[in-house]
Write a structure and sequence with these properties.
By secondary structure, the chain is α/β, with parallel strands linked by helices. The chain folds into 2 domains: 4-15 and 92-211, Rossmann fold, CATH 3.40.50; 17-88, Orthogonal Bundle (DNA polymerase, domain 1). Helix content is 46%, strand content 15%. The chain has helices spanning 17-26, 31-52, 58-73, 79-88, 98-104, 118-128, 148-158, 172-181; strands spanning 4-7, 14-15, 93-94, 109-114, 134-137, 165-169, 184-188, 204-206. Helix 6 links the parallel strand 4 and strand 5 (134-137). Helix 1 crosses helix 2 and helix 1 (17-26) packs antiparallel against helix 4 (79-88). The chain is globular.
């Protein structure tokens, strides 16, 4: 049995769907297209910034990805709408299986390891009412997942060996980054997406957190 369970935050514990709902209120009929492009650019910018060694906090990356997506789709974005959508990230809903799944894992170390900067993840966790042994942001490292030093950061902060960690993420690239580092990995594939072709496989492919 692992000593610690380390969870990704966005899309794994916290549902990004509420951001799409808010987008629909501003731009009816465009919310799906906008939210998909916004998320894609958000992740793309983290990888590009890591490769260029030009780190910026996730909150800035997220806002800039929103600006790009709106411009690309021809949607008017003023400061009030931008701020409202950014604030939604502090109030994301939990997936329905989160609370009970975490309760079942009581007795293990439980942690979050996220690309989210403290100004985003700390209020979100506080709003959820969840309790963790550690909420770890990449911000001190100035690098984003799936850089190996990010996963090492969790090992160092939790005081456990890599083989004692069971990592949980709904993002396949993140799950495989953790597998490459040396964690036992659970990929939460809620939508049944195919496995990314990166030459690695997670230890388990699960439909939800209950299967942990």
């Amino acid at each position: 049995m692992p000593t610690a369970f380390v969870f990704d935050a966005y899309g794994t514990l916290f549902d990004l769907h509420s951001v799409q709902q808010r987008c629909e209120g501003f731009w009816p009929g465009k919310s799906l297209q906008l939210s998909q492009l916004w998320r894609a650019k958000q992740l793309e910018y983290t990888w590009q910034r890591s490769l260029m060694r030009r780190y910026a906090p996730f909150s800035r990356v997220t806002r800039q990805a929103l600006q790009y997506a709106c411009e690309a789709l021809g949607l008017a974005l003023d400061e009030s709408r931008s701020q409202a959508l950014m604030e939604q990230y502090s109030r994301l809903a939990l997936f329905p299986d989160v609370r009970e799944a975490l309760a079942r894992l009581k007795g293990h170390k439980l942690a979050i390891l996220t690309n989210g900067s403290p100004d985003m993840i700390d209020p979100l966790v506080a709003h959820s009412g969840l309790s963790f042994d550690a909420v770890l942001s990449v911000d001190p490292l100035k690098a984003y997942k799936p850089a190996p030093e990010v996963y090492q950061f969790a090992v160092d902060r939790l005081g456990v060996a890599p083989e004692q960690v069971s990592f949980v993420s709904s993002n396949c690239w993140d799950a495989l980054g953790a597998k490459s580092f040396g964690f036992e990995v659970n990929w939460i594939s809620r939508g049944g997406a195919p496995l990314d072709r990166l030459g690695l496989r997670p230890d388990r492919i699960l439909k939800g957190l209950f299967e942990l």
